[in-house]
UniProtKB/TrEMBL annotation:
<dbReference type="Pfam" id="PF16344">
    <property type="entry name" value="FecR_C"/>
</dbReference>
<feature type="domain" description="Protein FecR C-terminal">
    <location>
        <begin position="322"/>
        <end position="389"/>
    </location>
</feature>
<dbReference type="InterPro" id="IPR006860">
    <property type="entry name" value="FecR"/>
</dbReference>
<dbReference type="Pfam" id="PF04773">
    <property type="entry name" value="FecR"/>
</dbReference>
<keyword id="KW-0812">Transmembrane</keyword>
<feature type="transmembrane region" description="Helical">
    <location>
        <begin position="84"/>
        <end position="106"/>
    </location>
</feature>
<feature type="domain" description="FecR protein">
    <location>
        <begin position="185"/>
        <end position="280"/>
    </location>
</feature>
<keyword id="KW-0472">Membrane</keyword>
<dbReference type="InterPro" id="IPR012373">
    <property type="entry name" value="Ferrdict_sens_TM"/>
</dbReference>
<keyword id="KW-1133">Transmembrane helix</keyword>
<dbReference type="InterPro" id="IPR032508">
    <property type="entry name" value="FecR_C"/>
</dbReference>
<dbReference type="GO" id="GO:0016989">
    <property type="term" value="F:sigma factor antagonist activity"/>
</dbReference>
<protein>
    <submittedName>
        <fullName>FecR family protein</fullName>
    </submittedName>
</protein>
Amino acid sequence: MAAKENLDELYKRFLRNECNPAEISRLSELFDAADYQVLQEMVRQQLDDPSATIPFRSSNQYRYDRIFRNLKEHTKPSRPVRSLWANISAAAGLILLVASGGYFWYQKVSPKPVLALHQVHKDVKPGGNRAYLTLSDGREINLSGMKSGRIGSDGGNDILQAVNGEISYVDGQAVTEQGPAALNTLRTPNGGHYRVILPDGTKVWLNAASQLRYPANFEGLQQRKIDLTGEAYFEVAKDPHHPFVVQTDDQQIRVLGTHFNVNAYHDNGGSKTTLLEGSIHARGKQAEVTLVPGQQVSTVAKGRLKVDPADQEIAVAWKNDQFMFESEPISILMKTLARWYDVEVVYGKDVPDIRFNGAVSRFENISEVLKILESTGKIHFQIDGRKVRVIKQ
């Protein structure tokens, strides 16, 4: 009983980020020795906690059931497995980000142990707050090289940079003449992400290898129109008189005030817009639809639009500093890793077309993520500088 109470207390301290390195090591030992049912109940309590980052919801019961089934399979004594420390982080993967990362599993779980990377010459660190801001006069500002505070002005607004990787626009010198809107461009490279608070108060999270083009001042404009390439998450400030419009290559999303995610990478086969809150109207070249929360609209062949139920946690996992995949093909998964780690991915012959489910922190070095993917026993990875080779086992 004392051991159980000690486990409970350390677990709660860990969730509050109060554990020192010795306590984290002790907690890992306790997880390894704990009964599976005890671990399941601890995770369930966290998922049920309304104060959790992403609390458990009955609509996601199928996912947690599957995670627990995999956890149970991987705790059988007859099978060589990774530490339960990694397993428990997977079971609560929507809540916990632990030092050892997350846990991936293959749909047909292999009985083979986790494999070491075949070759690592130099590890690759994760991306971070990196972006470039181009003002209406063409001047480009490297935001990762700027100190916090005022970094410039445009369209009558001052531009401020915070220490947490975010820029915002505040009232500055009044514009005496109403001319063409001053357009700014926020661009993130591979290995970068950034946040911006637009002049109307709309918050935008910009993923790696993305670009956002927007007015530096919305005053006098009938609509708040911006252009997006790549991926961004929006929390749009409500303004019933001035619609907010997001334009991609193949979709136009029109809202008054809501939360949604747009994935519009050119190499992903078409834009995908996922609605989390409120309502949006999406228009393609051949159709238009209105979404309700929990739906996703995708652009398919010939500009048609397809509406499907959305997995909201997966859609915004990147914003919450996680990789999260649901039956993701290796080709798409590696594109995601390539953008975030700024690496080139090359494929050997006869690489199997396998799919992955799971979650892992985006703050891990790439070798740690690839080791987890190698646990399928189907593929190997070789890292050489900023090149990752995918080869059949």
